[in-house]
Amino acid sequence: YDQKSLSVVFLELLKPFIPSDFEMKLLVNYENDGRPLEDLADEDQFMLRFGKIPHLSQQINTLTFVGNFPDTVKRLQLQLDSIISASMSIKSSTKLKKILEIVLAHGNYMNSSKRGSAYGFRLQSLDLLLETKSTDRSQTLLHFITNIILEKYADLANFHTELHFVDEAALVYLDSIIQDICSLERGMEMTKEVQDDSPVLKKFIKTNSKKLDSLMKHGKTAQEAYCSVVDYFGENSKTTNPSEFFPIFGRFIKAYK
C-alpha cells in the first residue's frame, strides 16, 4: 500500500481497467490454450497481467478510500459546520424573532377585515413581501416594513448580522452528507478487514478512527440542530431540506438589504 507511488488520481484511472470475472475467465482460458499473448490487443494484455494481482479490486478500493479520506472529512466537516451554525444562529436570534413579529403584525393589520388575527405564518410567506405592493405600486410591503424598522426599531436594523453561514447552509444536502459519513464508516471497516500486516493501513486506522468518530457525532449534532430550528418555525423537518429552508432566510436578507 504505497500511497506515494499510487496517487488517488492514478487509482481512479485504473478502476475502469479492472477486469470483470467474465473478462478474466476469457483471458485466462486464452492463455491456458497456449495461444500467443502478443496477438492480444495491448489493452487485453495489460488487463490479463493486471487482473492476476490478488484481491485487485479490494486493494484499489482500499487505497482510494485511504487517499480520499482527509479531503472527504474536511469537506463534510465544513458542510456540517455551516448547517449547525446557521441553524443555531437563526433559532437563537432575538432580533430576527422581533423582525418576524413585526411582519406578522403588519400581516394581521392588512387582513384584519378578512379574518381574525393569526398567531404565526409560514416562512414561505416572506417571499410575498416583495410581491405585495401598495395601491399606487410605488413600493412593496417589504419596503414599508423596512422603513418602519429603520424609523422605530433601529436596534433591529442589523438583525442579519446575528445569522451565520445561511447562504453556505443553503447549498448543503444533509441527507447526502449522512450517506457520505455512512460510506466512510463502511470504508473504515473494509480497511480494518484487510489491514493484515500492513504498517501503512495500521497507522491510517490508528490516526483516523477517532476523526471518523468525531465526524459521526458532528453529523448527529447537525441533524439535531437542523430539526430543532425547522420544528421551531412550525415546518416539517422530515420533508423540508436545508436547500429549501435556508434559502428563505437568504432571500429575505438579500431583499431587506
From TrEMBL:
Q: Where is the FH2 domain?
A: 1-257
Question: Could you tell me the superkingdom of the organism this chain comes from?
Answer: Eukaryota
Query: Which family is it part of?
Result: Belongs to the formin homology family.
Q: Which InterPro entries match?
A: FH2_Formin, FH2_Formin_sf, FMNL_animal
Spell out the PROSITE patterns in the cross-references: FH2
Single GO BP term: cortical actin cytoskeleton organization
The molecule here is called Formin-like protein 1 isoform X2
